Amino acid sequence: MRRNPTILAVTGLGAAPGFGFRFLSGLVALALIVLGPEPLTQASAAEELRIGPGDVVNVVVAGRTDLTGKYTVGADGQLFLPLVGGVDAKGKTARELSADLSRRLSVFDRDITRVDVSIAQSLSLNILVLGAVTRPGKYAFAKLPNIWEAIGEAGGPVEDAVLSAVEIIPGDPSSGRGVVVVNVESALREGRLDQLSQVKPGDTIRVPRQSSTSVALTPNTVFVFGAVVRPGMLNLERGGDLIGALARSGGPSPDASLSNIEIVRKSGAQTIPLKANLREYLGKGNTSGNPLLRPGDAIFVPHIRPGGSGWANAVRTIMPLATLAVSIVAISRR
């Protein structure tokens, strides 16, 4: 049963000067966060990607290390595997190719009941990102990105970017698709990144620039990304702290690492990386674990991955947001 996320927002922001009240409100907020809404599910973009010539696929055959490995699709669309020889892979999804290989290999070895296929590198999926981004150009993706992921790959938006009217221009004129205008800014504010339009192979993304009459974005904005239910932009209220921002983002996902939260803060021309241990605040009352936020802060909650480096993933994810934060602050000072 889903619980009312509005309660989370009110409780998480219930800051008071007294430490006892802040500590108690933090405990209540964490309890509501953990018992809050279930994380939103997002369909895998890779499932829609069709395999093409030159693509590299990972093939995992349970119990057969001699068949497991990376294979390159030939110019004719054929994938060659031991035992079965050439298999037509062009135009198939990873799931379709997996089913085909399972059927073919089971003829030679009845113990083979499952073959997992994933696309390691796609040469056929190139997206052109133009306009108000840091590094305009053509980018190759291993899976179909949504529009924000493509903008992030290009370094993120620049100061005068208009994220409320980003265009997706179809790369295939015969597809019957028209130009789509996407309000990325609204999706970021409302935490609807999972609903953003996906781009297709060969598409062009154009991020327009602001004119002198454009309406400036609010400077009181923070960004929450990573292992939370609703990542995106939030309006920072006076006295807003970390736990409040997480609560308003729907709470952390079950695999969130609350002891290794990263915050990227802009100070002039410098980027300051900060770390916060929210468990220290909730367990011991250490206020450094629940810092007050500043406009433009980008918060990254890492996923718990054994042996993984949360900070490396954080930098890759939130640097586009840090760029956008500079833009918002700069616009507000005009």
Automatic annotation (TrEMBL):
Domain Polysaccharide export protein N-terminal as annotated: residue spans: 45-119
Signal peptide as annotated in the record: none
Domain Soluble ligand binding as annotated: residue spans: 129-173
Compartments in which it is found: Cell outer membrane
This protein's name: Soluble ligand binding domain-containing protein
Domain of life: Bacteria
Main localization (coarse): membrane
Lineage: Bacteria, Candidatus Eiseniibacteriota
Family to which the UniProt record says this protein belongs: Belongs to the BexD/CtrA/VexA family.
GO molecular function: polysaccharide transmembrane transporter activity; porin activity
Keywords: Cell outer membrane, Ion transport, Lipoprotein, Membrane, Palmitate, Polysaccharide transport, Porin, Signal, Sugar transport, Transmembrane, Transmembrane beta strand, Transport
GO biological process, one term: monoatomic ion transport
Domain SLBB: 221-301
Entry membrane topology: Multi-pass membrane protein
Cellular component terms (Gene Ontology): cell outer membrane; pore complex
